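Weekly structure sync, notes
Attendees: PL (lead), two postdocs, one rotation student
Agenda item 3: pending single-chain targets
PL asked that the sequence for the first pending target be pasted directly into the notes so everyone works from the same version. It is reproduced below exactly as submitted, 335 residues in total.
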Amino acid sequence: MARYSDLSPLFGDELTSMAVEILNFFNPLNSEKMQEELDIEIPFSIGGLLKWYNKRAPQDRSNRIWQVCELIKKFENQGLLVPAGSKNGSPPLNSCYYMMKETSSIERLGLLWLGKYLGKGFISHHIPNNLVFITGKTIKGDLAVGSGILLNDKLVLTCKHVIEDMKLDAHVKVRGISYLIEKHEVHSCLDVGFIVLKESVHKDYYHKDVALRDAVLMEDIVIAGYPKIPSNLNPESPIFQSGEVIGGSTSYFGKHKLLLISAISRPGNSGGPVLSLDGKVLGIVIQSLEREKEESDFGSTPLPFFACLPTSEIIKAFNEMKLSIDYKLPIEDFQ
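Predicted structure, written out during the meeting:
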């Protein structure tokens, strides 16, 4: 006889759906509606959630009770769900909660803020909807690859050197769909460039809550992009690397400010986003900072520092470009 419980780990769309269902159920703004549908009293319990799953939910998840309880406990430990006592019955089904979270105007446009609670895997699953695969040819005619991040339905942020170091193909790709390039512009000195698409990406195909914000020292990050992998059967499959912000803004030979990161970047990552766990763009990958071997390093291999261009420099560059007349950068101001 097959086991009733499904003990497989949650990931991807199933994790997202379950998290949203749990938070909506315990959201006080939905209390009146849930009371009418289920004939239960406030505060709501895990048992009430299972009753909703059995009766009204888009999908019955009663066979996922262990994952439901684990997710609720995680949200409780992170302060997203607040304990509200207990009802008659056995734990954990008698435990009651309220969902407590105030979101900014940008966060309300989507669900990427959940990455703060669900982790790097959540961001890595969702951000490819905004990752841009940029291709072209080098002077020698070899394939060149770069990365970018879609900031709205038409505007792609990338590096200046990604655009200038290759002859761009006529199209870029987002989630495997080709979009014709209308125009592009690069900053005169900062390593910042933008590509404008001819047609808008459909509003349901990308995350509208992607926005720029300043980084916090030692916060967790995810970098995403399309580094070239030898003999890779699917070069359009994004690669992710996690790390931390390890250094504040650093002047690089007087050219511009940089953020140092511990995540490893490779050729092809250039122009790709450095993301916080709440889905905000903290910068774009630009280069590694190599140093010459010193005498005291005898017998050792110099290790590079990996760097990104921070949002403050990106915003500064954009405001000095012609594109700023017709387009606006999404910036998280927490309003």
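Discussion points:
- The two ends are 54 Å apart (CA to CA).
- The helical segments are 12-26, 31-38, 46-55, 65-77, 115-118, 120-126, 160-164, 311-319.
Action: rotation student to compare against the earlier draft before next sync.
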